[in-house]
Amino acid sequence: MKKKSTMVSAAAVVTLSALLAGCGGNTAQPNGSNTSSASTTPVNGGTITQTFPTAFGLNFIPYLSTSAYTTQAWSLQFDSILQYNAKDQLVGDLVDKWQVAPNKKMYTFYINPKARWSNGTPITSKDVQLGVDWLLSKSYNVTDGGAYGYILADIVGVPSSGYLPDGQTPSGFKIINSHEFTISLQHADAAVLTADLSGIVPLPSSILGNIPMSKWKGSSFDRMPTVGSGQFIMTNLVPGQAITQKANPYYVFGKPHIEYNVWKVVSTDVVDGDLASGQVTIAGIHATDASKMKQLPNLNVNVEPSNAFDYLGWRLNNAEYGSVFSHVRFRQAVEYALNRPAMVQALYDGYGVVENGPLPPINFWYNQALNGTYAYNPAKANQLLNSLGMKIVNGWRTLPNGQPFTPTMTISSGDANIERQADFIQHYLQQVHINMKILPPINFNTILNQLNGDANGKQPIQAFLLAWDLGNDPDPRGLWRSTDDMNITSIDWTNTNDPAIKENDKLIHEQHTRKAFNLQYRINILDQWQQLLNQQMPENFLFDEDSVTAYNKDLHGVVFSPYGTLDEYKWWISPSS
Predict the structure, then answer these.
(1) What is the CA radius of gyration of the chain?
(2) What is the spatial distance between Cα 231 and Cα 261, in angstroms, rounded to a whole number?
(3) Cα dist. 167→132, 147, 205, 215, 353 in Å?
(4) Where is the Solute-binding protein family domain positioned along the sequence (predicted)?
(5) Pairwise CA distance, residues 266 & 415, whole Å
(6) Which tens digits make up the pLDDT trace of 42-63?
(7) Which of 16, 82, 232, 455 has the smallest CB count inside 10 Å?
């Protein structure tokens, strides 16, 4: 699964799959343990403060928000049925055992006997059923524009529309008893367990089961859930500013050592001072500040490759310039025009790598053949723009009809490095005579709202800077198919009359068919798919910046991975904190 995140330098953003797994690093060795303490015996109690670099959303019912920051908060309150460990292996969570039928079309799950809600009541198959019904409901998929309903669309009994009337359970979901249930699929699917079913989040049927789904969004439970199955439970909320969460005494893997986890909105531009003073315990920092922060005696600094990438998107249906944005040669020209290695060096002190496709180089499934493509070549960029009939008049490119071409770029507030990144892009595009204008920064959630409401291409967004955090499984469904909501609302690469888009949909389908249970076959298909997107460039892939995180030396047990931090319930702080 994937989600939009604002493009924030070294932001503490983790992938959806990792978050759902239960949110682990080492100052010196990635994927290791923090051993800075003289004592290795965890201590219970205390408060840690983490940060969001920009305002979070206010929908905390699982999957209502595609914001990485809102998801970070609710993913600590609600666990999924399965999770990934530090070795990227699927392991138990609220479900501790599962079986796959020989036909690969039926899965049997057994709920962990220790799984309880934060009020002490057992988590049952009925709660899992409500989580399934929610993702497949009309309210979620239609009224609320749900982005993740696709993950359950292949369950037996789900119509081609991909959703059901509110409260209706697909016939392929069967409750065997309070702690056992089965899910039957219409097709054998090589990715469904790792990419989809593992992310099912049980919901408290004793509470939400009494509220019509049409009224869930904006409800008091949505604004601040009163119970949860995760590591921490919300106790206080200051909209757009802070969230306080308390340790869940009934957490399936044991009560967290940390008593309170606080999220505060603190710009990455000023968070260094709060880390130095101890007001913030752990936060993403600018890579350019890493050397300075390493000198502070109270901090550790961890640098980790991330399973995410930054991109420059174009609203291909834009009413004013969509006729240009939708040309693959235009997007290829932009890719050649950007000196991305120089940007990685200038913006991140070299902490990052150039991105040439839809999967980051750190990912197991990355197609190595993409390395070195679209090397900086302004002459090639100019050649492609000339081929589109975009003449240069008074120093600037025009539309093929001779009208001025002055596209605008929308960027998020809260991080000056985003503005620097936009400045670099503007500079390089000016070198090939594209008169790009940068709009004043706006709130991240405003950007999402404008993208989500841009079916006719008349919203002010034309070009924009965002990022994608990717799940542990590379399944492109949910983002890259022509019918996927996050494609439609992000870039609109959806014209099925385009042979390339038809091929895209075909390859995405093929990578999860029965044949794809053969690992090498799936690798080959995903290699072809990545090559296609590299050639078509539906959005301009920029770079995969490393996650640079500073954290107080009194914080122990933190484990970092390319998918984010893991197992916050194991974290603890020294008594002196």
Answers:
(1) 23
(2) 10
(3) 10, 19, 11, 12, 46
(4) 90-483
(5) 10
(6) 999 999 999 998 888 899 999 9
(7) 455
What the block records as the tokens of 225 is 């859930």
**405: its two tokens:** 């071409």
Report the pLDDT value the prediction gives residue 529, as an integer from 0 to 100: 98
Q: What is the pLDDT of residues 382-427, one digit of tens each?
A: 999 999 999 999 999 999 999 999 999 999 987 888 999 999 999 9
Q: Residue 377 is encoded by which pair of tokens?
A: 């070549």
The CATH H-level superfamily of 82-213 is Dipeptide-binding Protein; Domain 1 (3.90.76.10)
CATH numeric code, 2-78+230-306+547-573:
3.40.190.10
CA-CA distance, 264 to 244, in Å (whole number)? 9
Domain edges within the chain:
2-78+230-306+547-573, 82-213, 308-545
Q: Which DSSP letter does residue 149 get?
A: G
The pTM score is: 0.82
CA neighbor of 492 nearest in space, from 266, 338, 331: 331
Segments of the chain with pLDDT less than 70: 1-39, 576-577
Give CA–CA dist 389/384, Å, rounded: 9
Strand partners of residue 351: none
pLDDT value of position 18: 29
**In contact, 315 and 322? CB cutoff 8 Å:** yes
User: How confident is the model at residue 492, as a pLDDT?
Assistant: 92
Q: Are 146 and 486 in contact, with CB atoms under 8 Å apart?
A: no
Residue in 468, 471, 515, 473 with CA at minimum distance from that of residue 489: 468
Rounded Cα gap, residues 266 and 505, in angstroms? 40
164 DSSP 8-state letter: B
Grouping H, G, I as helix, E, B as strand and the rest as coil, residue 47 is: strand
What SS3 class is residue 368?
helix
Structure tokens at 432: 């090939």
Query: How far, in Å, CA of 341 to CA of 439, rounded?
Result: 25
pLDDT in the model for residue 177: 98
Element (H, E) at 382: helix 378-387
Structure tokens at 337: 């025009």
Fold category of 308-545 in CATH: Dipeptide-binding Protein; domain 3 (3.10.105)
Structure tokens given for 333: 């020209």
Give the burial class of 462: count Cβ atoms within 10 A of its Cβ; 0-12 exposed, 13-18 middle, 19 or more buried: buried
Strand pairing report for 95-100 and 106-111: antiparallel
Alpha-carbon separation of residue 373 from 340, 367, 397, 480, 499 (angstroms): 11, 12, 25, 21, 22
DSSP 427-443: HHHHHTT---EEPPPB-
Give the list of residues 6+ apart from residue 376 with CB closer than 8 angstroms, or none.
336, 338, 339, 340, 341, 342
